[in-house]
Amino acid sequence: MTARDVVVIGGGLAGITAAITLREAGAGVTLLEARPWLGGATSSFSRGDLKIDTGQHVFLRCCTSYRELLARLGVTGSATLQDRFDVTVLAPGGGRARLRRSALPAPLHLGRALGGYGFLSLPERLRVGRAALALRTLDPARPGLDGQRLGDWLGSRGQTERARRRLWDLFIVSSLNIDGDEASVPLAATVLKTALLGDNDAADIGVPAVPLGELHGQAAAALLGRLGADVRLGTKATAVEPDPAGGFRVQVNSGADGDDGPDPDGAGAPAAGARAPDSREIGADGVVLAVPAGPAARLASAAGVAGADRWNDLSSSPIVNVHVVYDRRVTGLPFAAAVDSPVQWVFDKTRTSGLKTGQYLAISLSAADGYVDVPAARLRDQFLPALEELFPAARDARVTDFFVTRERRATFRQAPGCGALRPGAATSLPGLVLAGAWTDTGWPDTMEGAVRSGRTAAQELIQPMAGLAEPAGTAGPARAAAGSPS
Q1: 167 and 219 share one domain
Q2: Which of 246, 300, 310, 440 has its Cβ near the most Cβ atoms within 10 Å?
Q3: What is the DSSP string of 75-136?
Q4: Quick one: 162 and 13 in the same domain?
């Protein structure tokens, strides 16, 4: 073993980013992923002839680190980004509004959209503008702010229950995966200030144009293979132990099944990659724990990291996705938000899934504590009529397929006090670092936060290893990728 060997545990966006960054800096990288695919929660599975994303993921123009990752993977053209922020908001019974930015500088770029937002009264719209200006000057790092509920902060600034539900929740619930009133004020401020109140184009919305498994997992496996990283799928790290001689010993269990993935209700499973080599122990000079808070706490505590048990206090929030396939098109919208409806956001997945005839809509339900254990049949009884209220053409269409996917631990719970629980990349054990959107990235638990965390974790290891001679892609401690998805 040389001073160039790093084991990255976890093949989601954080682990992928860390592995790429380390390998490009000359470190030998072994990436361990318990599931048979890369991409973590941003993955896909097959259902008949269709490719189904386990959940809907979007990004914004201001997600610069995530967009840089797409460019590094060579898949920028596999996602579409709006020329201008534009969201249609629907309500049962035919209500409709449009939130579209202008070319004016921020914050004036949303003035016309807010002024014409018919789901709020004129006095409510004026008070929204005043609250937005107050939010624009708010410092998320201000002492004491981490303990405040967003509902209390907005309520004290004239935001009525209706304004919070019909406007603020459109962006907070989906971005923080928590009931709007219960959200962390600093994280909500980060989202709103950066996206809606920052540069006038910051909130332009991007969506994948191909299945997530292709956009992230397959592209990452191909790049890591070219870089010479050793990617071991179906391999779970069971322990990380400091080596008395220096560095670490990572205990692994090949052929493992991931235990933190999405739960498709009888919808099949992601296609398996090649099985990893049967190896019981891997030596390394550095380790990146790029796994959720719970598994990270277990591994780090056993390794002797001080305070790791506290990470479990972050807890988690679920996301449920309701998938409906119709025999004909029922809407021309690529996506829409909804108010006064159980539907929160709905996306047209027809093209990305490969559906040839009809239309496939996916409803994304964030903060889904009330839905995560509801049987699919009951969700069908609730959400098919809800879709018909938003899209009247659905009343004449036949449902050819209906299923549900559940991400029980989709994000950490982004509630008041969470900021104090989020650790940085470095730990009390030199050489053992953390990555993941749950760590203290300054961002919510999003794809952008995950990518930022992976890059930060890698830099924590790269700096002490300055002077590495081996360029990425050459022979040496890093081995060829194993089991890259096809």
Answers
A1: no
A2: 300
A3: -GGGEEE-SS-EEEEEETTTEEEEEE--SSPTTGGGHHHHHT-TTS-HHHHHHHHHHHHHHH
A4: no
Query: Do residue 168 and residue 37 come from a single domain?
Result: no
Contacts of 284 (CB under 8 A, 6+ apart): 1, 5, 6, 7, 30, 247, 248, 250
- Going residue by residue through the chain, which has 486 residues, state the pLDDT in tens, using 9 for 90 and above: 344 899 999 999 999 999 999 999 999 999 999 999 999 999 999 999 999 998 899 999 999 999 999 999 999 999 999 999 999 999 999 999 999 999 999 888 999 999 999 999 999 999 999 999 898 889 998 999 999 999 999 999 999 999 999 999 999 999 999 999 999 999 999 999 898 888 999 999 999 999 999 999 999 999 999 999 999 999 999 999 999 999 999 999 986 555 555 666 744 444 444 444 455 899 999 999 999 999 999 999 999 999 999 999 999 999 999 999 999 999 999 999 999 999 999 999 999 999 999 999 999 999 999 999 999 999 999 999 999 999 999 999 999 999 999 999 999 999 999 999 999 999 999 999 999 999 999 999 999 999 999 999 999 999 886 544 344 443 333 332 333 332
Domain count, the chain: 2
CATH at 108 = 1.10.405
Domain identity same for 194 and 216: no
